[in-house]
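Before relying on records like the one below, remember that each one covers exactly one chain. Contacts with other chains, cofactors or solvent are not represented anywhere in the record.
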Amino acid sequence: MNSLRAVTICTLAALVAACDSKQSADETAAGPGIPTTVTEVAASDLPPDLLIAVTNAVPGIQITGAERKEREDRVYYDVEGKRADGTEVELDLLQQGNRYSVVEIQRDIAWAEAPEAARTAAVTSGKAFEPVRVIESKQTDGSVIYELFAEGAPTKPSLEVRIVDGKAEVLKEEWKH
C-alpha cells in the first residue's frame, strides 16, 4: 500500500513538474505573462498574399519553414529560408485583416560584424557580456535592432541595441516585433 502511494505521489510530482516546465517554456518563448500560440505551417499552406510579400522583400527566397504566432491580439508569421546566395534569412510578417506586411528581416551575424556604435553602446550599457549569438533585425522604419544573447539564455535576448541614423541606443524594453 505504501509503495503504491509513493508511486502515485511520484507520478503526480512528475506531472506537475512537466506542466510547470511547459508553462515556463511558453513564457520564455513569448516573454513572461505574454501567452503565445505557435503553429507550424507548411510553405505550401502559406496564404498567397503572404508569399507575395515575402518574395517582394527577399527575391529568390527558398522557404525552409514557417510558424504562425498569435499574441496580444496580433498574428505574426515567421518565415525562414535561404536567399539566392544561400545565406539564411527570417522574415517576420504582421497580418492585418487579409494583408501581410514585413515588420523585420533577420539574420545571424558575428558580433564583430555589428557596427561599432552598437558594440560601444553594449559595452558601456553596464550590462556588458560577450554575446554567443547576435541577430541583426532590419526594421521597416529604417532602424536596425541587434539582439544579443548571453551564454545559457538562448530564447530571449539579454540586451538589445537599436541603431537609427548611425546612432545607437540600448533598449530598456524588448522590441515589439
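The chain is about 25% helix and 35% strand.
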